[in-house]
């Protein structure tokens, strides 16, 4: 049973990540002006700046 519950948790996380990425791809396919109107561009830019800061911190 431990193996099955582990597989279930992995599958659930995978499905959630896949849905999240699909949503991001859909939002990124919208025109920049529309993304700005709904506030997605700011959220996406903040996330990218965090990734860049994390990456540069790991390189140093």
Q: What is the string of helix and strand elements?
A: HHH
Q: How many separate domains make up the residues?
A: 1
Helix content: over 70%
Largest sheet: none
Radius of gyration from CA coordinates: 17 Å
User: How big a fraction of the residues is strand?
Assistant: under 5%
H/I helix tally: 3
- Report the structural category: mainly alpha
Instruction: Report the strand count.
Output: 0
Spatial shape: elongated
Q: Span from first to last CA?
A: 44 Å
Return residue spans where pLDDT drops below 50 for at least 5 consecutive residues: none
Q: Overall mean pLDDT score?
A: 79
Describe the 3D structure.
- The protein is an all-alpha fold.
- It has one domain (2-59).
- Helix content is 90%, strand content 0%.
- It has helices at residues 2-28, 32-38, 40-59.
- The mean pLDDT is 79.
Short key terms for the protein model shown above:
about 90% helix; about 60 residues; 3 helices; elongated; mainly alpha
Summarize it:
Helices cover 90% and strands 0% of the residues. With 60 residues, it is mainly alpha-helical.
